[in-house]
Amino acid sequence: MKHIIAFAGSNSTTSINKQLATYASGLVEGAKAEVLDLNDFDVPLFSTDLEKSMGGQPENAHKLFNKIKEADGMVVSLAEHNGAYASVFKNLFDWISRIEAKTFLGKPMLLMATSPGARGGQSVLTIAQDRFPRHEADIVGVFSLPQFGNNFSEGQITNKELNDQLLVEVDKFQNAI
């Protein structure tokens, strides 16, 4: 059985992106999904001075990187803060990229975002689709869920057309892992 990890690029305890990542990872057949919480990987604010004084990267950055290494694929749903990554995700990404520049190790990724607004995190998805392949992400599927509050309830997407779009992307991911 394949092992996938799923996480939101957010540290909110009520993260809508974590809800979406959890739902999508549960749709992947033939895989065991491990849903991660970025709060379990707390690291100090990245700086090269701190990295030098610490003699390397923090243990929690290594822990998350090891989760990526052990997984057959990743389901990632990014929170969008002011049109970009949430600072918690960007900070972890910065630390992990110092461990290994090819951060995502060529693993298949289902990349997603959601937001309360009509664009569904499109800005952060555009940034990630440009940036992540430079860190060896194999983005095999992309999905945006607009207006989370209107389209997601009781742990699932309630809009049939949007859910069907997600199922197409999940299928691509499933075939890639």
From TrEMBL:
A Pfam family per the record: FMN_red
Residues of the NADPH-dependent FMN reductase-like domain: 4-126
Classification via Gene3D superfamilies: 3.40.50.360
Name the record gives this protein: NAD(P)H-dependent oxidoreductase
